[in-house]
Each structure stands twice: as structure tokens, then as C-alpha cells.
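Crash report, auto-generated. Payload:
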Amino acid sequence: MLATTNAVLLDQQEITEISAQLGTNSLMGLSLAKMISDTQTYMAAPIEVPGHGEAGGYEHNRHKQNYQYINQAGRLFLITGDEQYAKFTAEILTEYADKYLGFGFHIQRNTNPPGRLFHQILNEHVWLLYSSLGYSCIKHWLNDEQRQHIESKLFQPMLNMFTVKYGHDFDRIHNHGLWAVAAVAICGLAIDKPEYVEMSVHGLKGDDVSGGFLAQISQLFAPSGYYMEGPYYHRYAIRPLCLFAEVLHRHRPSLNIFEYKDQVIGKTIKALLATAYPNGVFPALNDASLSMGIKDQGVVVAVSLAYKHYGHDDKLLGMANIQQQVWIHGCGSALSQGFEKSTNTSLPHWPSVELNEGPNGDRGAQGFIRLQSQDGDVSQLVMNYGQHGMGHGHFDTLGISFFNRGQEVLKEYGFGRWVNVEPKFGGRYLDENKSYARQTIAHNAVAVDQGCQNDFDVETADAKHGVPHFFENQTKDLQAVSAFADNFYPGVDQQRSLLLINDDALDAPLLLDVFRINSEEEHSYDYALQYQGQIIRCNSDYQMHGELLPMGSDFGYQHLWNVAQGKAANNSLVSWLQGNSYYSWISASEANDELFFTRVGANDPQYNLRSETSLILRRQAKSTVFANVLETHGYFNEAVEASTNARGKVTEVKVIASNEIGTVIQILGENIHFTVMLSNQRNISADTQHSIETNQQTYCWQGSLALEKNRG
Amino acid sequence: MLATTNAVLLDQQEITEISAQLGTNSLMGLSLAKMISDTQTYMAAPIEVPGHGEAGGYEHNRHKQNYQYINQAGRLFLITGDEQYAKFTAEILTEYADKYLGFGFHIQRNTNPPGRLFHQILNEHVWLLYSSLGYSCIKHWLNDEQRQHIESKLFQPMLNMFTVKYGHDFDRIHNHGLWAVAAVAICGLAIDKPEYVEMSVHGLKGDDVSGGFLAQISQLFAPSGYYMEGPYYHRYAIRPLCLFAEVLHRHRPSLNIFEYKDQVIGKTIKALLATAYPNGVFPALNDASLSMGIKDQGVVVAVSLAYKHYGHDDKLLGMANIQQQVWIHGCGSALSQGFEKSTNTSLPHWPSVELNEGPNGDRGAQGFIRLQSQDGDVSQLVMNYGQHGMGHGHFDTLGISFFNRGQEVLKEYGFGRWVNVEPKFGGRYLDENKSYARQTIAHNAVAVDQGCQNDFDVETADAKHGVPHFFENQTKDLQAVSAFADNFYPGVDQQRSLLLINDDALDAPLLLDVFRINSEEEHSYDYALQYQGQIIRCNSDYQMHGELLPMGSDFGYQHLWNVAQGKAANNSLVSWLQGNSYYSWISASEANDELFFTRVGANDPQYNLRSETSLILRRQAKSTVFANVLETHGYFNEAVEASTNARGKVTEVKVIASNEIGTVIQILGENIHFTVMLSNQRNISADTQHSIETNQQTYCWQGSLALEKNRG
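Recovered output after restart:
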């Protein structure tokens, strides 16, 4: 037996610190208790190492659970000193070593090469990473023969497969590549083969450009730290990134990895965290699940690591409060201690932030606007005016989502996928992801001529990006963002400006949405809002159809039932009830605008889509402005039969003027008289003067926008 | 000033006991903290006594809040000794006394006479009850003039209105009547007019039969304690019932009210509690909200009172655990102390219970079947085979609902009403309550010839009731219920038998549903299940319609979109995902059965209905048996991307035989081979022998049913 532990990620002092929290109510103590109970349950069942299985199927899940518990049991052996954990880890690794080379390779089914355990080596990378970590925790407890068996029959063949057989795929600049290099390096450390660390850090060519961890973290993120595939894929990439960075911090201290490239690691962690809604769930930008959030394992690791290596931050404690756990590691100890000491661990309130996109930060941005109401609730608006996001991109530039009172109000549909639900095409992406979820009309955006941005062509879309106009986050009663999207439809330029406004007359921040379109040709514009809940009130004279037909035949419209339609009223209003809150949408609709109520579900023979609802305001025009507010108001609680302010306060939205200089909007209601002036000129500065005359009135303002209350 | 308090419901010892809990974490301490913070928030706003308003509107809500805080502030004055509470209570009562007689009467809008504050005196009764209680807490703190003003200008006129002007409506045998007598008696005590107590207890005629509290509690409940309008209305009646009973206990001890009529009060409280789902929410029998549960104020009072006066019961502590509060009263002190002492306050697991209906308990029953799985989760099945329930009754005799894993799986639609949502017809019952929610097809039942039971005629329905057949609740792996409904459709007799079966091969209790129909004429039978969630798998060759039409033109069918239909497969299977759980329905379908998928929403121009889904299996037959199982299986968690056992174990359900003696069913699947024998003979005993021969096999059993596992 070896004398002491040489666990890749834990030293003796950390182990002692963590052990001291066993049985306490600190976040570390709670995390340990959960891990112990969870691991005990798993260990109570017989060890099972199955053969191949379908993606998402029983065998697939079993292999996933196995690596998770190899990793957990290994750590628990060091922390508790209880040999049952070492015994379990040794037995299961031995059984894998007995069987691994006997498993043939899966049949290749997608672009990712197949492994011996999983249908794609991505999963096998993850398996290797966690199993190596677990192995490194018990290695000193094994005898030479056991070590030899596991290393030669399991780990070394895996390393060969990843770096030789699939060498072409090993260290590429891609989120999957991060898993590959982290797994190979960690396994290399666990079995004392430092050459694998070198190739993982610097790439097979050793040039720090074409591959390897340093090249990956230099090239995968924008200067803002944003990851172009969006938070859902970002949180998946952040896990190997953080694990490997922590490994390098202790095993290659000369790299000074946490300072590397102007702290790119810290920056990208904070960028990811800054996208989250106030409840910790990530907006489903691009292909994404609706429920992925900061409780994900990778983000738990990232928050602990950021706290340890980039210093105290109340917002991180707020996130730990949502997570109710820490990484069971020295970094997690630091966070747990910080949490114990702090008196301010309320929910995190991140400031509004604009995250630029592209290698140089000049390919648009993602805007995250937040405003807090008097009762403390945070409203968050998200607008996409960045890049398309490659194969996982949605055609939704200038699309928005909106969250408050604990729920998403203007919804992202997310991906068309039932992840890991085996009977749903093995849990993989479904056809409806393309035919509906990625289409423009599935978003809170404007679809032109019932089509899709860039004609649903990924290459065209990847070549374009949105153009930031202004971003105002300096005052606590007004935050704003504006951006352009030129020629996403041929000959059509779009500009969307969004404001969140606090006022004593209102229960919550008012969302003003001014969607301006310029075109020399007449088009049909569909301004769509993905609402959810029960329609309470509508002032338009619509007809509910006696028979339902799809809204169209392509670009997602084939999946929308046309439930009701009618001529939109002047200042058309639709109110709905979602959860405990009322929402009212009031639009400066024009004569001949038509209002549609839709429901997802047409042409979906396998029930692959969720039955969701939208409003569409349709207008035939050349250049035009859609000006709308969304008011959050009142309270409803069915269980106690309480309802207040079910009608809201805003009654009218008017477009006073709109031209190349600016747009002037009026919002009227009970004790509400707002005039909003927005710049439409490109490349303005804070000093740029704007002046618009209309109806013997002159509206002048400086800089991006002005809000006047109670102007006559 | 008077020397000491003569609060109607609190004596000095109780006040001392309650005060001692201020600032503690006991249930009483938590309840006090919440009441104080809540009352302080309300008192911080200016006092406002508005005039008339719409049902559910602002003024209506304000009057409701006012009585609530008069009551709370009065009690808090006694408990905390802080005069700010007395001052607030005095001021607001004085302002009501200033204005009350100046308010005219509302215009009468429904069968309930109008008050001066509210559109119906029911609300005004509640107002008087709570305001009198609050007044009695501060009366000794007021001077003579204040007392005189409040009593002569407010309370006495209210008493006159209720007992003279609306005397004909005062003490009737009805749940509203309970509020009337409780309010009048409590006010009588508060202002020292004992004559009002007498008339409230014994009725205006003093005969204890035609009216008054004693007559009400003798006549309103079945011997089982069940209230025919269902738990939703029961929990509303239980509040004045308990408050008045507690008042009588201390002010008319000679009545010995808690022993009255063989403990009718205790019995009806326990009957109400025994209907609740494991999460504390009441099944929405008849017109009811889907979210009303044991956290309702009335039930909080009832649980505390039952614990004090009918003794310790672990199930009551389990309910208090869900409530996380107690009645702030001596009864609540007792419960809070019991809770502190107990080591077993897990969620309550009520035994299966059959609650008979009708004054003599011979008008059918409501069946509540519960079975616990190995992981502790309780599955609950509810079947209605009792009375119709008068004006709030639904036409759903033999209808069922089913709950497990924290959610209702086979759903009750509940009422067609957005309670207190003012823009939805003042929060009152909507037309769609009749046109959809009360119809047979809206339930988990069989609709015949696309019609409704008893042709939707209340008088016909009230004259009938279901007939209990057997109820088996003795073993922990099998519970069962069976009942008949004869002639609810002309010439059609129905029998429904339901079993919950535990087995090691299954994740959770299996629900077997055997719905047997006898008729000499051919009919079209629609076996309907109200499911909720995402369809995962279906083995029938259905077509999703390219255009949607309503399922019919009357009896609720006009509100159902026909989304998809097809010939049902042999052993047709439909799986869906609801929340974190999978459900599979496997049916012994017959050749030519047709399967429909529906969605609520057609012919609902105001969006008054919720968009819910159902499966319908349609069969043309004379006599027939629908035999089905519902398997609960697997686990799904999108946030952590986990899915297990998405396919379930049962593959086949067969009707081996069915005649006047019994029905024999086989259930087959992975490690599952069950044979179930059910009695169809009426008036059986535990000794009755049954024997059926079919295909050279003989099936013999004694008593109501037999279950054999692994019979060849």
C-alpha cells in the first residue's frame, strides 16, 4: 500500500477541514449529509456493470450512476475514513477493469465517435474524469496488483482510445473538448503519467493554439466571458473547465491558471452566473432546457471555486443560498465558511449587464436588464442581439424573455427535446426542435411574412449578428436596452428598444417594448408574445374559431393552432393570470391590425411539443412601430380565495412620433402619464442631441433616451 | 372602563398561556409571529371604510380585510397588552358605526338577500362574527360612550337586520345558516344580549327542529359526518360550527355541546379531515376549488379544536405539520403543546374510509382508499357513489379521482369559476360550470350516448344515489371498493370496482379499474380519463387531426376539441409524464374500440375554462366491461436530466370472464401475473361463495374479491 493519499483534488488539510463539518448545519455539513445518504442508498444495491445500451436507456444511466458513485465514495473514504467506501470504489472499478476490453465499440450514430460504454465518447470522457478522481482517493488503499489491474485494463486503454484512436477529435476547441482534456489530464495524474497532462494543457501539437486547455479557454469565450451556445451549454462546459483549472492550480502552479488571460476563468464564471433569473434558473437561450439552473453540479463547483479564488462577493453567497450546497472540496469549505460568517445571504440581485459576443466582443451582445420593485422582487428582461449560436442557435435575434415574481412571463420555449426520456427518441433532439422550437415565431419576436429570420439557414445566420445601440443601467427606477438587427429578413431592418420603469402608481416595473421596423416594401409583420396562463380580459372583438386550423404550413406556423382571431381594438388590451400574478399587455395597435390567439400542437403526431400559447398582433405595413407595455399587477391566490388589482392601471399606449432620429411614446393610465423619447440614431454618445417636432410639440433630449413623467 | 376582559373566546388563563409562546418556535409561536407581522402591515396603512362594491371588487375585499384585522388586532391586544391594537380596533369599529346606517342596501342579485356592506348577507354574517369577537377583546378598554356608539349604530342594527328584516332566512338548515346563528349569538354575547344566543341555539321557533344551531348540526351531516355538498363547502361550514361550538362550551356548558348527538361535532370534523389528499388538499368533489385544503382558516380552527376536545391523535399532529400553524386560542395552545411533545409528526396517513351519506346513512357513500408504497408515498383513490349534492352537485356518480407522488393524477376539473377574480363575472359561478364542469364527461367516469347522467336534471339526480357494494381496507397490500349506479342513464346499470395493489415488481400501488355496464340495448360508451402531462407513448394507430372540431354539441362535449383519434390497439397503452412521474394506462380494449385525445377549450369565447386534456375510449355495446390499469412508474427530473423506468412493467390486461356472479381479470407484465376475481352479486357477505367456469378453468372465491399472484 502507498503511505498516504495523493488524491488529485484534495489535500490533507482540506480533508481535515471538510471532516470537521460532518454533522453540522453549515452548507458543507448539509452537502456531506446528502452525499452520504445518497451514496449509502446506492451502495446498498448490488454492484452492476452492464454492457451497451441505448442513449438514455437503462445501461446508459447505470454507467452514469456508477461513475458518480465511484467519485463520491472515493471522496467519502478520505473524509470519513470509513473503509466501506474504499471497498465499494475498489470493487466497482475492478469489475469495470475485468470487463472493459471485452466490450466492443458502439455503432456510430452521430458526429461524436462511439465509446465502449456509451454511444458517444463525450459520455465516456465524463466517465473517465470522475472515475479517475474517485480512484485517486483510494489508490493508496489498494495493493499493487489491484492498481495494476485497474490502470492497465481500464484507464490506460481509455487514454489510448481518446488520444490515439480518436486523437483527431481529442483536443479541439469545443465544449466537448474541455471534457476530453480534463478527463485525460486527471487520469494521467491519477496513474502518474504526466505526459497526459502536458498534451491536455498544450494540445497534441503543443502549440497552445490548435488545441488543448489553454487554447480552449482563450478561444471559446467572448471578452465578456459569454459562451456563444448560451447558458445551458455554458454550464455544461464550466464543470470540466473548473475541475481542470483547480487541478492545474495545485499540480501546475507555475501556469498561474486563475490569472491566465486576464482572469478568463473568473470572468466566464461570473458571466454565466450573471445570466440567471432571480430564482437561479437560466434563461433558455438557444437550445436549452427550461429548468436548468445554478443548482447544476457544474455551477455548484463554479460558485465554490469563484469564491475561493476570486474573493468574497455577496452575490455568490446569495447563489449558494439558492443552491443550498457547496462543492465538497477545499473551495466549497471556503464558501461554506463565508456563508456562515455573512449576515446578508438574501437572494442575489445581479446588476444589469450587457455581455458582448465574438472573439473580439464585436459581434453583438446579450442584454440582461434587472429592476427591483419596492417589495424587493426583481424583474429581469433578456434580449438576444448577439450571434446565432451555431447548430444549437435559435433564429430569434431581438427576441426577449421576461421574468418576475418567481416565474417566466414572456417565455422561451427552450429546446424540442425530452432529455434522457428514452421512449422520446432516446432523449435526443426531436424533429420538432427544427420545425418549431428554433423558428422565429416560437419566440417573443417579430416574424416577417410568416417566415423565419435568415430563412432558417444556419450558415447565413452565423454570418450575422445583432448591433447594440444603447444600454442604460445607472438608475434604480429606469433601465433600458436597444439594438438593431439589419437584413435578417431581406430588405427589413429591425430595432427593438426595451425599458423597465418603476413608478409609485405601479405594483411592479412596467415593461415598455418599442419594436421599430423599416422597409421600403410592404410586409406582413407578426409581433408574437409567448404568454402562459388564463386569459382574464380582452378588449378586442375576437372570434373563437368553431374549428381549428394551423396558422400556416411552414416556419413553425404549421404547429400553431389558430384558436381565435379578430380585429384588434384601439389600444388593444389582453390580461391574463399566471400563477399568483396578473399581467396586462396594452398595445398601440393600429387600424386593421389583427389579433390572434394560438396554441402549440398542430402537426405534432407524436406529442413531442408542449401545449403552449401565444398572442400574435399582425400588421400589414412598410415601416412601422409596435409599441406595447406589459404591466405586472395584482395578486391571486386560489387556496385562500384572495384577489386584488385584477385590472391594472395602464389604459393607453400612443406612438406620438417615430423617425430616423427617434421615437416618442406616451403611456397613460390611472395616475400614469409617461412620455418616453428613444434615440433611433446609430453611433450616438451621451451628448448627442435629439429633437422631434410633431403636432406643434417639440420633444428634445440628449443621449439615448428620456423619460418624463406627468408632462402635459 | 370595565375592570377586565370578557372576551367571548379567550379567558385569562388562555391569554397567559398564549403570551408565553411569543417569540418561540412552537407552532403557536410561529402563528403569533405571522399574525403580528401581518396585522402590523395592515395597521400601517390608513383606516378605510368604503361603501358598496362589486362582488370580488375592491370595496368587497376591503370590508373582508377590515373584519379580519378587527378580529386579529383585538386578540393581539389581549395577548401582547400593546394598546396600539386596541386603538386600531376601536377606531375602525367607530368608523363603521359612524357610517353603517348611512349605507343603503345593495341591490339584490341572487337568492341571498343583500346587506349594507356586501351584496349578500352571507358575507355580512361573517363580518359580524369576526367584528364581534374583536370587539369583545377590547370592550373593557373602551369608555361607555364608545361602547354605546358601536353597539347602537352598528351591532344592534345588524342583529335587527338578520333576525327581523331577514328573519325568514335566519336560522335555516343550510351551511349559510351556520354563519348566521354563530354571528348573531357571538354578537349577542359581546353586547350582553343573551336572548340572541337563545334564538341562535334553538331557532326562532325554539323547537330545535325547524332552525337554530342544534337543529343544523343534527340535520346537516350524515351519520358518518359527511357533508353532502362535499369538502369544499364542508370546510366553509366547519368554521362557524367550530367557533360557535367553542363559544357554547364556555358560555352554555350545560349543553355539553361536544358530546351532543353522539359527538356529531367531532365526527364531522374527522370526516372532513379524512377526505384530504396526503398533501392536505381536498379532492374537488362537486363544485369546488382545486387548491382548497386543510390550511384553510376553518380547518385550522377545527384541527385545534378536535385536538383539545376529542383528545390526542397522531394524524391531527400530522395535519398541524402541514398547516404549520394553530388556531390562536386555547385549543391551539393544546395542539401546539402536543406537537412539541410528539416525536411522530410525519405527514398524516389516514386509513381508507367509506363515509356514508344521507340523514340515515343509507343514501350511498363516498369512498376514500389509500395504500402506501414501500417508499412511504401514499396513493389515494376517491370514488363518489353517494348523493348528488343539490345545486352544487356534479353528475359524476361512480366518478373517481386519483392522487399520488404529491399530485392529482386522474383529475377532478373542479368548479367553473375564478373565485374572487372580479373581471371574471365578479368571481361568481360561470355559465361553463353548467355547460362543462358539472357534466359527466368532465369527470373520470363513463358517459353514455354522449349524454350526461340523469340528463343533467338536478331534481332527478337528487332523488337517486349510488349503492355501496364492497369496501375492503384490511390489508396493507390490497384495498378495494365497489359500487353500483342503477339507471343513471335509462336502462343502463353501472358497477365500478377499484383496487389498489402493492407488489414488489411495481414502483407504486397499481390501480385496477373494472367498470362493468349492463344494458339490453346497444349504446355508445365513453370511458373517460382526465390526465395531465405530456404524452410519451401510445401503441394505438391514432391520427392527429389536421383541423380540430368539437367532440359534440351538448353535455360538455361541445367544449372538447377532438385532437386525435384512432382504432384502439389490442391492450391499448397510453403513457404520459406528469411532473416527476410516469403513468401508463393499459386497457383490455376490444376490437372496434376507438381512442380519442381531447383538449378543453372549444366554444369557450371568454376563456373561462382551463385547457385540460382527457383520453376517451369509446365502445359500442350492450353489456360490457372496461378493464384498465393505471401504473405509476419511474422518475423524471429535467433540472438534473435524470430519467428512470420510463416504460413501466404491465403489458396486458385481460377480461377472463364477467357475468352476474363476478368478473375475472388477468394482469400480465414483467414479473407480474395477477388474477383478480371480483363479486358482482349484490348483498354478499364475507362468506358468500363465488364460482365461475370459463375455458375449462374454474375460478372460485369467497366474499367480495380475491387476488392471486402467479397463478398459471
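Post-recovery validation: Chain B touches chain A through 55 residues (CB under 8 Å).
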